[in-house]
Amino acid sequence: MPKSLPLALEMLSSDHRKVEDLFEQFEEMKEEEDASRIVIAQRICSELTIHAQVEEDLFYPWLRENMDDTELVAEAAVEHATAKQLIAEIMPVGEPDEEYDAKVKVLSEYIKHHVKEEENEIFPDVASEEEELDELGQEMFARKAELMAEMGMEDEMPARRERSRSDREARGS
């Protein structure tokens, strides 16, 4: 079992799993009532909006300063812009139709690609910067909590770790 990720990467990975689960729920509900599917789709869009904002405000600027090859960061930012366009088309719908389901499906596929690149190419490149990523993770948790409050979303995040990994190691805990 690999050791745990630095806090910033752990938080982003946790967000990725949450959205993947929501996309699965949406797929499983395709034959069910529209209102339930809309609730799930809107939750997906809200989660992705907050996640993207945290990455754009804090994670991507940090990556640009700490990665040699920032081409992946530029690509991720472009992917965010396209995802936001789909989110803007999904969020306001009252009655989902075939096109609505198709947009959610395309968003799902797009996000899977984005997550794969982040977790397989970007994260391994920076994971050794544990102390900085633990500190950045604290800032990211705080920013995410602010954005959730602004959007009126309940806090489903795991409790934030108060001490960084290096603090725990120094104390031998």
Which stretches are poorly predicted, pLDDT < 50 over at least 5 residues?
157-173
Radius of gyration: 17 Å
Mean pLDDT: 85
Number of helices: 6
N-to-C terminal Cα separation, in Å? 19 Å
Total domain units = 1
Assign the structural class, choosing from mainly alpha, mainly beta, alpha/beta, alpha+beta, or little secondary structure.
mainly alpha
Topology, number of strands: 0
Let me know the largest β-sheet.
none
From N to C, what is the helix and strand string? HHHHHH
Beta-strand fraction estimate:
under 5%
What is the overall shape? elongated
**Helical content class:** over 70%
Provide tags for this entry:
6 helices; mainly alpha; 173 residues; 76% helix
Describe this structure in words.
- The chain has 173 residues and is an all-alpha fold.
- The chain has one domain.
- It is built from 6 helices and no strands.
- Helix 1 packs across helix 5 and helix 2 packs antiparallel against helix 3.
- It is elongated, with a radius of gyration of 17 Å.
Quick rundown:
The protein is mostly helical and 173 residues long. It contains six helices and no strands. Helix 1 crosses helix 5 and helix 2 packs antiparallel against helix 5.
How would the blueprint of this fold be written?
Blueprint: H1 7-28, H2 34-66, H3 71-90, H4 98-126, H5 130-150, H6 165-171
